[in-house]
């Protein structure tokens, strides 16, 4: 009875505005922030139910709209392992968000609880961690989420404050592992593991002072704020933050940030010709995306971009090398460490990156766009490395592999073999697993991992750029009446419906050297996206254009 009363109550406090339809898409609910309170309140109910279902394990809600304009907002739910909410619950998320009135909402919850075997009532507990980014609607929406959570009897909400999205995911994961889930614990882990990585840099590789200079575009969001907080403790790295989110520096995601730099390929606001040649990184508004760039010349605003594919390649190369050292080293123990290393990409990965990775002999697999697909796939390996070209990705280590590393390190040090190359490689992988966020792609931890690897190799930005050259590519958006009429298969690389469309794409593509083209309905906008690549920019443009005409 109490449960029914609370649900009816909260639903009547947040009536659904007429004509609003919410959908739990690739990145949760997202829309104009001012209209979001009903959906976010319901996300609160959903998160609390998810926690009850999972025997009171902690789940999370982040209030953010990532790289989208400052007026937008949204909510995403994190499961107990820190990853995205199980996709199996998404249809319920949609139905709940769109329940037209309090009674419909109550019936929906009761029915779902019955179907899913979720016990409702005073004997059960639930715990939800909440975080939000710096958007002006954040506080108001966080309150709506709180009210939703409190509508489930036994549920307990903890507001973790203003955070990056990956921080919240990390905290949820830590909480469920019984590790301290505070921001200071997160920072400490980042700072300590980064220091360990630098301690393991071969002595002859320590570069000059300038090589350690890094300018970071914080997108005027939360990532810049957090980086300012810890940069003094990152010895061996000289970080300057621009678009740091301070009053007067600029607007969130406006003319800056990872999405802007990756799509427009021009310098973000706040950078000038004086920065030519310096290594720069760009985060998005909630700091789960990372790209690198360099202002290429003083005369125009173009940049040399290092996107997610090249970050992935750097990580893969490093990990592969450490595994090789461990397995081929002639040291006394010579214990083999069989590891299944998998690389996960999407159709947007530049063809040159895929070729580069395959040439290294690595296993490369593809999933549809969206972190939830990539992350899940990466978990199938001992070490799974995944990135989207747009800068969203991480490295995940299986628990089994981590414990193998631990016992190998113990064995080596007990045999006084702790000066060996093999031992150092083991320690590097262990430090990497601490540094890189295991829950979700994290621009701050990704950035520190990149910096540690560059120092390890003694590499400049230029060396990194030259790993391979990107094939020229072009992306177009096509407005259609119903984008769901296009259905894709094979990780979005092929169209299955309408069946004639793939034939048309194939016919166009064969005319181009290194030609590759695919179309897919966007998961976040009402458009169909076209991607084409070929050996020259003119050809990539022309391939994209002709395929777009077939889509219209
Ligand atoms: C969301 C996804 C991002 C993906 C993008 C594709 C997450 C956290 N974010 O932003 O990974 O690249 O959608 O958008 O999964 P699209 O479907 O409109 O092309
Ligand atoms: Zn983001």
Low-confidence stretches: none
CATH class of the largest domain, named Alpha Beta
Enumerate the distinct ligands: 2-acetamido-2-deoxy-6-O-phosphono-alpha-D-glucopyranose, zinc ion
Level of helix content? Answer: 40-55%
Mean pLDDT: 94
Strand content: 15-25%
Annotated CATH topology of the largest domain: Alpha-D-Glucose-1,6-Bisphosphate, Chain A, domain 3
How many structural domains can be distinguished in the coordinates?
Answer: 4
Q: Helix/strand/pairing class, anyone?
A: alpha/beta
Number of strands: 19
Helical stretch tally = 18
Report the principal-axis shape: globular
Strand order of the largest sheet: 1-3-2-4-5
Distance between the termini: 54 Å
* CATH superfamily descriptor of the largest domain: Alpha-D-Glucose-1,6-Bisphosphate, subunit A, domain 3
Based on CA atoms alone, the radius of gyration comes out at 24 Å
CATH architecture of the largest domain: 3-Layer(aba) Sandwich
> What composes the largest sheet?
5 strands, mixed
Briefly characterize the structure.
One of its GO terms (molecular function) is phosphoacetylglucosamine mutase activity. With 552 residues, the protein is of the alpha/beta class.
